[in-house]
């Protein structure tokens, strides 16, 4: 049985553009739909949707920060490994 390499899995998930931007894309869709709900006098639902969009934006930004630090960490490891080979 093959051993699971968690670092490779996390690196692949973080490099996938659609997956890493999914919370931000959903939040933007929710924010775009909120004014239409207000026009239909559904202000309570629009406020809830705006709250969910806010939380999704926070999740998306945190994911981007984690992705940035992971990418720089792996790049530094790859650079130091290449230097050791030469």
Write the layout of secondary structure elements.
Elements: H1 6-15, H2 17-39, H3 43-85
Helix pairs in contact: 2-3
Report the mean per-residue pLDDT as an integer.
Answer: 81
Q: Approximately how much beta-strand content do the residues carry?
A: under 5%
Alpha-beta classification: mainly alpha
User: Tell me, what's the shape?
Assistant: elongated
In short:
With 86 residues, the protein is mostly helical. It is 88% helix and 0% strand.
Characterise this structure.
88% of the residues lie in helices and 0% in strands. The protein has helices at 6-15, 17-39, 43-85. The longest helix has 43 residues, at 43-85. It is mainly α. 7% of the residues are buried. The mean pLDDT is 81. Helix 2 packs antiparallel against helix 3 (43-85).
């Amino acid at each position: 049985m093959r051993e699971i390499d968690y670092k490779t899995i996390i690196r692949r998930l973080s490099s996938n553009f659609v997956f890493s931007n999914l919370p931000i894309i959903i939040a933007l869709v929710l924010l775009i739909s909120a004014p239409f709900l207000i026009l239909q006098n559904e202000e309570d639902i629009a406020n809830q949707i705006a709250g969910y969009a806010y939380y999704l934006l926070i999740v998306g930004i945190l994911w981007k920060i984690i992705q940035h630090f992971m990418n720089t960490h792996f790049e530094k490891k790859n650079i130091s490994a290449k230097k050791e080979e030469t």
